[in-house]
């Protein structure tokens, strides 16, 4: 086990303990690492100095008392105590003063420090386990495994059954990036902000997890700074629409909790059910497309199966989409027609019904007919013709995300 005091207790924390001890008890303490170097002291000039008394503690693993008659390089009269973690000495704490006066205080500080590093060690272990789990899930959703049985065994180590039918959900906190950029721009940027970001992400992860009490059934990992990947276990016997309603209910609960707790709106994309470990990547990819469509259209969530032409349009480059839009819609000329794009969207939403579209737009049927005729004159495509309307609807879908 490779551990040290400096690894487990940040220097800033050690320094704050030094200052608090001095202000409350009027005593000076020093923290020394596994190399007997001072890492925290009331005297900044001593930080980094070698402490011979600490070196003796590390050698003997016993308390070392330094009186005024004894001399140790870099040391002052007082006591120096080993700090242990799991029976291993990982550092030294020293208290300056008459050894008899500071002995009891030394024992107290020794115990407090050992409790602190034990908590830090446990936190580190949890974080390492989280990272290992995230690595495993990332390999899974990217289909980066050959031996399925071996991979399944690794999954059991994390309590994950890769053979369960699952639905991928990608959840993105839509305002988070702007929030964090603003925060960084108005503060002294240092590693603390990155630590705060990680704490925030873990807190959000815990909040989401609370909505899935069946922890061994579902999988959740962070995905970037503001996104999360959920792999929901589903009952294959559940009727399709009922399953959609259950997923919708869970997503709604999570989104409401995020907004209430963190004042963050979120968007979710939901993929199709996958039935084998090798199919999971497809559900994740579908969820990503549904998410992007939801973001572009300001929808709280979207199921991939509910997408039409939108399901493949993100595969095309922006330049290809723009070229198609220009050739089929000629948007710069269509703007001369009042409410043109909204008119076309409403027309197709109402299955090409002149009556229903005119009512929805609160215009006369003749006005609608005039607009549709103008679209045909500008583009060369008749919105009322089945073949032409297909091209126009594809171009409209591209236009909305460009």
TrEMBL record:
Residues 147-292 form the CdaR GGDEF-like domain. Signal peptide: none annotated. Residues 342-397 form the PucR C-terminal helix-turn-helix domain. InterPro entries: CdaR-like_regulators, CdaR_GGDEF, Diacid_rec, PucR_C-HTH_dom, PucR_C-HTH_sf. It comes from the Bacteria. Residues 11-140 form the Putative sugar diacid recognition domain. Belongs to the CdaR family. This is Sugar diacid utilization regulator. It comes from Halobacillus mangrovi.
